[in-house]
């Protein structure tokens, strides 16, 4: 099998060296080039045709976001953003994920040690997504689909919705939640993101959606027309305390994640007695599958994003294989499926 070919793009020679060192001992990954700015990177992408690109968010001559948009529009390629976790870097990284970046990793806070241990696995998964990215960005051949409209509350709507997602989930959640009605059922979401990114993402969703979106706070009462996003680094659960409320905890990671989709879904299965719906979207690994199965066994309707529209068909695949998913649907029909 040919190695995954990577182009490293960063204006810092030190950062490029750190990234290359992190990948140098991995035989199935090859750094085929590096670039210090987007103009240089553009030429090297044309010459080298990399499988994956790592890209700094803040770049000279052309912003990383502007360059990413050009890549996604003109030469779809999996891009892993390398970003500062604080200040403008957090908001910019969320914007990059919305444009179509595969995932993001933080820059190290210091130069001692190697903070990119998980990068090789991420690059391998990113390389698998290249054909999907190319296919889904081809010009449409037919008339555009009509927008989803849910005019008013229906008695058959679920009374609570839980959604879990990971890699590719920022873009997927924007697609799904943009079709949610203003008076949607209370909705609880776990999206795997670093702690400093979830605040910016919740604000972005709130601007784009008709329903109210906020980063969950411990003790928040869940209410109609509100969507609660788990803060990075905290498990989000449903608890009974003078009504149904959000609860946050720092308990151990589950499936390697905190927040964990499994933790959220399991808490809904245990504590909610009404009509619930669980949805699992694109992402690596198996987080959420077991919890979604618990929800289904308690009578919840459950949906999984289908393979053709998943940037990474990992979490939805496992959930489907163990019987947790009642129905697989394309991303663009998730909202319609929930409310039909």
Automatic annotation (TrEMBL):
Alphabetic keyword roster: Chemotaxis, Cytoplasm, Hydrolase, Phosphoprotein
Residue positions of the active site: 166, 192, 287
Keyword rRNA-binding in annotation: no
Location in or out of the cell: Cytoplasm
Modified residues (4-aspartylphosphate): 56
Source organism superkingdom: Bacteria
Keyword Acyltransferase: no
Residue ranges constituting the Response regulatory domain according to the UniProt record: 5-122
Sequence intervals crossing the membrane: none
Cellular component terms per the entry's GO annotation: cytoplasm
PTM (free text): Phosphorylated by CheA. Phosphorylation of the N-terminal regulatory domain activates the methylesterase activity.
Domain CheB-type methylesterase, first and last residues per copy: 159-340
Enzyme class: hydrolase
Reactions performed catalytically: [protein]-L-glutamate 5-O-methyl ester + H2O = L-glutamyl-[protein] + methanol + H(+); L-glutaminyl-[protein] + H2O = L-glutamyl-[protein] + NH4(+)
Molecular function terms from GO: phosphorelay response regulator activity; protein-glutamate methylesterase activity; protein-glutamine glutaminase activity
GO biological process: chemotaxis
Pfam families hit by this protein: CheB_methylest (PF01339), Response_reg (PF00072)
EC numbers, comma separated: 3.1.1.61, 3.5.1.44
Record text about domains: Contains a C-terminal catalytic domain, and an N-terminal region which modulates catalytic activity.
Function according to Swiss-Prot or TrEMBL: Involved in chemotaxis. Part of a chemotaxis signal transduction system that modulates chemotaxis in response to various stimuli. Catalyzes the demethylation of specific methylglutamate residues introduced into the chemoreceptors (methyl-accepting chemotaxis proteins or MCP) by CheR. Also mediates the irreversible deamidation of specific glutamine residues to glutamic acid.
The family this protein is said to belong to: Belongs to the CheB family.
UniProt-recorded name of the protein: Protein-glutamate methylesterase/protein-glutamine glutaminase
Organism: Consotaella salsifontis
């Amino acid at each position: 099998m040919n190695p995954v070919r990577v182009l490293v793009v960063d204006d810092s020679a030190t950062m490029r060296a750190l990234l290359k060192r992190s990948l140098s001992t991995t035989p199935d990954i090859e750094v085929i080039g590096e670039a210090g700015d987007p103009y240089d990177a553009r030429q090297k992408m044309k010459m080298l045709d990399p499988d994956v690109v790592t890209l700094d968010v803040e770049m000279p001559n052309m912003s990383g976001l502007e360059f990413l948009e050009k890549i996604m529009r003109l030469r779809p390629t999996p891009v892993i953003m390398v970003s500062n976790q604080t200040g403008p870097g957090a908001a910019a990284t969320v914007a990059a994920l919305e444009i179509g970046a595969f995932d993001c990793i933080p820059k190290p806070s210091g130069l001692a040690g190697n903070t990119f241990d998980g990068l090789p696995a991420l690059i391998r998964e990113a390389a698998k997504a290249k054909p999907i990215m190319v296919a889904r960005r081809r010009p449409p051949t037919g008339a555009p689909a009509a927008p989803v409209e849910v005019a008013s509350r229906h008695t058959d709507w679920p009374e609570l919705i839980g959604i879990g997602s990971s890699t590719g989930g920022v873009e997927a959640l924007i697609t799904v939640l943009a079709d949610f009605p203003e008076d949607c059922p209370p909705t609880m979401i776990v999206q795997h993101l670093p702690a400093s990114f979830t605040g910016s993402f919740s604000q972005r969703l709130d601007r784009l959606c008709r329903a109210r979106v906020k980063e969950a706070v411990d003790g928040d009462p869940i209410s109609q027309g509100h969507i609660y996003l788990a803060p990075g680094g905290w498990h989000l659960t449903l608890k009974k305390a003078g009504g149904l409320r959000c609860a946050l905890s720092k308990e151990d990671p589950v499936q390697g994640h905190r927040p964990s989709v499994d933790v959220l879904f399991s808490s809904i299965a245990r504590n909610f007695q009404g009509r619930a719906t669980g949805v699992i979207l694109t992402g690596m690994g198996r987080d959420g599958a077991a919890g979604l199965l618990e929800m289904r066994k308690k009578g919840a309707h459950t949906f999984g994003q289908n393979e053709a529209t998943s940037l990474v068909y990992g979490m939805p695949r496992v959930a489907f294989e163990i019987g947790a998913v009642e129905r697989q649907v394309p991303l663009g029909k998730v909202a319609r499926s929930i409310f039909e």
